[in-house]
Design goal:
It is built from two helices and eight strands; from the N terminus they run E-H-E-E-E-E-H-E-E-E. It has 126 residues and is of the alpha/beta class. The protein has two domains: 51 residues, Signal recognition particle alu RNA binding heterodimer, srp9/1 (2-Layer Sandwich); 61 residues, Signal recognition particle alu RNA binding heterodimer, srp9/1 (2-Layer Sandwich), CATH 3.30.720. The chain is elongated and about 55 Å long.
Length: 126
C-alpha cells in the first residue's frame, strides 16, 4: 500500500511551482490544460486538481478552503533548509525552533494556505 494526498484548488500551477522551487519535487504527471498535476518527493506523492470538473465525482469537485491541513517535509539539515528557503524570499510562518518532543522545525504556507512544516527529527529533550 501507499498513502498519498491531493488538494482541490484553483492554484494548480502556483502549487506546482511552489513545491518544485522550495523542495525540488519532480512532476510525475501534468494534465493537459493544467487541470491536474502530480508531484513526487522521494516516495511521497502530492496532487493538485482544479475544482468543479464535471468528469470527477462530486466529492472531488469543491475547492479546499485553506485551513485545517498541514504537510510535513522531513529533512536532514533543517538549519540549511531554513537559510535556503528564507533566502528565496519565502515568508516564514513559524520561525525555526526546537520542540520538547525532539523536532527542530519551521513552517511556511503554500499558495493554498496549507502549512508546510519543515522538520528535522531529533531525540526528545530530557
Amino acid at each position: 500500500m501507499k498513502f498519498w494526498s491531493g488538494v482541490v484548488t484553483e492554484k494548480v500551477q502556483e502549487s506546482r511551482d511552489f513545491y518544485v522551487r522550495l523542495f525540488g519535487c519532480q512532476v510525475l504527471y501534468e494534465g493537459e490544460g493544467g487541470w491536474f498535476v502530480l508531484l513526487c518527493l522521494g516516495e511521497s506523492e502530492l496532487g493538485f486538481m482544479k475544482p468543479g470538473l464535471d468528469f470527477q465525482a462530486p466529492i472531488y469537485r469543491p475547492a479546499f478552503q485553506g485551513q485545517g491541513m498541514w504537510i510535513t517535509v522531513d529533512v536532514d539539515d533543517v538549519d540549511a533548509q531554513y537559510a535556503r528557503i528564507r533566502g528565496l524570499g519565502t515568508p516564514i510562518e513559524v520561525e525555526l525552533r526546537d520542540e520538547p518532543w525532539g523536532d527542530r522545525h519551521f513552517a511556511v504556507r503554500d499558495p493554498n494556505g496549507i502549512g508546510v512544516d519543515v522538520v528535522e527529527r531529533r531525540p526528545a529533550q530530557a
